[in-house]
Amino acid sequence: MITISPTAIKEISRLKSKVANPEALFRLQVQPGGCSGWIYQLNFDKPTPSDRLYESNGISIVVDSESVKHLNGLTLDYSEDLMGGAFRFHNPNALTFCGCGNSFTTA
After folding, report:
1. pLDDT by residue (tens digit) across 44-97?
2. Tens digits of per-residue pLDDT, 4-46?
3. What distances in angstroms separate CA 74 from CA 22, 26, 28, 88, 94, one per listed residue?
4. Which domain holds residue 50?
5. What is the sign of the dihedral through the CA atoms of 24, 34, 6 and 86?
6. What is the CATH number of the domain that holds 40?
7. How many domains is the chain partitioned into structurally?
8. N-to-C CA span, the chain
9. What is the pTM of this model?
């Protein structure tokens, strides 16, 4: 299960309105990298047959089969402060995070 907060939904919807392909879905995945081992990647594209599809508050989320084990239970939030806006990841699978919060380690 992946949950998207109302503020993140608003930002995803704003970004989606700028995507040329109306069939593209919101993709959430992790890839090796960052200072802690795994880094989050967000984009819009078409799902593949091996992807898992989630629904949260009216937003379709595509997750590849490798990323699912790192993202199960994740809550995606969005907030703005004096430095600007950013997505925030609340991931119960993460054991440690880097200082910026965009990369993490798992067991």
Report:
1. 999 999 999 998 888 899 999 999 999 999 999 999 887 888 999 998 988 777
2. 999 999 999 999 999 988 889 999 999 988 777 889 999 999 9
3. 26, 15, 10, 10, 10
4. 3-105
5. negative
6. 2.60.300.12
7. 1
8. 19
9. 0.85
